[in-house]
Amino acid sequence: MRIFVTGGTGLIGSAVVAELIEHGHDVIVLTRSDASADVVRAAGAEPVRGDLADLDVLRAVAGGADGVIHLAFDNDFTTPEAIVRAIAQEAAAVDAMAGALRGGDRPLVTVAGTPAVPGRASTEDDPQLASGPVAGRAVTVQSVLDLDGVRGIAVRMPRTVHNNGTGGFAGLLTQMARRSGVVGYPGDGAQRWPAVHALDAAAVFRLALEFAPPGTAWHAVDDEGVAVRDMAEVIGRRLGLPVRSLPEESFGPLGVAFATDQPSTSIITREALGWEPTHPSLLEDLENLQP
User: Fold this and answer.
1) Residues 19 and 154 reside in one and the same domain
2) Residue 122 gets which letter from DSSP?
3) 6 and 84 share a domain?
4) Are residues 111 and 184 in the same domain?
5) 206-to-75, 120, 124, 243, 273 alpha-carbon distances in Å
6) Residue 176 belongs to a domain with what CATH number?
7) Which of 81, 174, 190, 216 has the maximum number of C-beta atoms within 10 A of its C-beta?
């Protein structure tokens, strides 16, 4: 199939592009710069210039593709207003691509987050994330699952998607630690975040694209839940920095999410799609952090 990928040069996207090519798909990748286009060509894919604001480009490329995997998002979490703008931009972009795909039951695979369910690990049967700073994205995801004439699918990602010690919420903790000189965590750090290696997550996107029925959500989860304090301890040891609890507000707009216990499982995904993660766990991968 000829697949259009947005966000194809990021941590997850580059892994997805490689996974698709390895399994015989032709890949077109949305790129915002000449440098990104060069990276895409080197990976064996075809670049097309534009970003999520270029709705005409999105319509044209999606309309000529056999399917779309949408991963791009403006990850500016500095203020609530920036998050709202990013969510609105994504909603318009997804609507444009969905409209171009209608007819022929072509797949549109979008990315979501695993929901937090009080008292237990969430599953694929739980509804979309309904609260938190980026919960507005759930409206866009649900619109994809409700599409007619398009095989709309969601792959839910855990809070940390990692590769070589970087990425996700754990990566944000590392970035904050490098700036402040302290590895912090909210509360007592016992809250758990699910995690997955980017190369394992890429396989879920490819399997969902190829086999998943419309209106379904899947979990790319390896580690069901890693205590934030345990992540912080590894980060602190690798960076040579002190580790301690910090007030929730120290983490900005994402503080509430950082403080939430949010384990998740992927039993249904493993059984239905035949997926089995094979790459290092989060704590193992964090050992690759360089001081």
Assistant:
1) yes
2) B
3) yes
4) no
5) 23, 28, 17, 38, 10
6) 3.90.25
7) 174
Look at residue 77 and tell me whether its pLDDT is greater than 70.
no
Determine the number of helices (DSSP H) and then strands (DSSP E) in the chain.
Answer: 11, 12
Q: Can you tell me the distance from the alpha carbon of 16 to that of 164, in angstroms, rounded to the nearest whole number?
A: 16
Kindly report the number of other CB atoms within 10 A of residue 223's CB atom.
22
Q: Helix/strand/coil (H, E, C) string of 25-65?
A: CEEEEEECCHHHHHHHHHHCCEEEECCCCCHHHHHHHHHCC
- Whole-angstrom distance, CA of residue 99 vs CA of residue 6: 16
User: End-to-end CA distance of the chain, in Å?
Assistant: 42
Measured CA angle at 223 (ends 221, 227), to 5 deg:
130
Count of structural domains, the chain: 2
Tell me the pLDDT tens digit for each residue of 182-238. 999 999 999 999 999 999 999 999 999 999 999 999 999 999 999 999 999 999 999
Strand partners, 47: 29
The whole-angstrom separation of Cα 220 and Cα 147 is: 22
